[in-house]
Amino acid sequence: MSEDWIAGGCLCGAIKFEVRLPSKWCAHCHCSMCRRAHGAPYVTWVGFAREQFRLVAGTPSRHRSSEAATRSFCGQCGSMLTFESTRWAGEVHVARAAIPGAIDHRPMAHVFFSDKADWVTVDDDLPKRGGISGTEPL
What is the pLDDT along the chain (138 residues), one digit of tens a residue? Predict the structure, then answer.
C-alpha cells in the first residue's frame, strides 16, 4: 500500500478496501434512509472519486436502497461500507467509521438536516444544510 492509500474495512475483516487522499468532503447525513440503514441518529460519510476507492479483499453485499442508490455492506458482520448514487455520479461515499485511521477532512456540515430525527440534539457550530431536495451544496 502506498502512503497515499489508507486502509479501511468491516468489523470482521472479511471486506477490506483502500481509499486514496485527498477526499472530496466529509459530512454528517441525517436522511432517514441513512439513519435506518446504519441504525444510528446520523451517518458520517467521506466522499471520494470512484478511482480513489478500491477493494482489496472480499466482496461486499449490495442493496439497492432506492431507484438511484446502492449501499454496500459486509454480508458476514453487517457493517455498512459505501453509498453510490446516480445523483453523485462518479463518487463513492464511504462510511467514516469504516476507516479507522486519520483522513484529510473533519466533518464539514450536517446535510439533509431538515430530515433529522426529532429526538436528536445537535449543538455544534457546523453548517446545517439541505433537506430532501438537497439543493444546498457542501
Answer: 446 899 999 999 999 999 999 999 999 999 999 999 999 999 999 999 999 999 999 999 999 888 888 999 999 999 999 999 888 889 999 999 999 999 999 999 999 999 999 999 999 999 998 765 444 444
The pTM is what? Answer: 0.89
Kindly report the CATH number assigned to the domain that includes residue 38: 2.170.150.70
Q: Which range marks the domain in which residue 32 is found?
A: 5-129
Using DSSP, state whether 86 is helix, strand or coil: helix
